[in-house]
Amino acid sequence: MLSGYDIIKAPVITEKSTQKRRESSQVVFWVDKRANKSEIKKAVEKVFNVKVLDVNTIVVPGKVKRVGRYAGRTQIRKKAYVTLVEGDKIDLFEAT
């Protein structure tokens, strides 16, 4: 069983995720590929002490990268869009 800190890898800080956070109280995280929606929900509620309304996930495929004549792929990652209950916010994002 993975702990909450093993499931949540890092926040996704992009223009799109910042806009979603401001407009619809959604935050975006990179999460462990093996974690399902209920595990992600429990992890976010436990780590950040907030109430989660909904979780949407997407698997992001790796891109092909080249260095000279050698080609490889980046990692396959999983992204979670977490919708918080109205009024809850995560201080990690509010400091920026």
Describe this structure in words.
This protein has 96 residues and is of the alpha+beta class. It has a single domain, classed as 2-Layer Sandwich (Alpha-Beta Plaits). The protein contains 4 helices and 6 strands. It has helices spanning 4-7, 15-24, 37-48, 91-94; strands spanning 8-11, 26-31, 52-60, 64-67, 70-73, 77-84. The strands form 2 sheets. A 4-stranded antiparallel beta sheet has the order 1-2-6-3. Strand 4 (64-67) and strand 5 (70-73) form a beta hairpin. The longest helix is centred in the middle third of the chain and has 12 residues, at 37-48. It is globular and about 50 Å long. 17% of the residues are buried. The mean pLDDT is 91.
Structural class: alpha+beta
Unreliable stretches covering 5 or more consecutive residues: none
- Shape label: globular
**CATH class, please?**
Alpha Beta
CATH homology superfamily: RRM (RNA recognition motif) domain
Give the distance, in angstroms, between the N- and C-terminal Cα atoms.
33 Å
Strand share of the residues? Answer: 35-45%
Proportion in helices: 25-40%
Radius of gyration (Å): 15 Å
* Number of helices in the DSSP assignment: 4
Encode the helix/strand succession as letters: HEHEHEEEEH
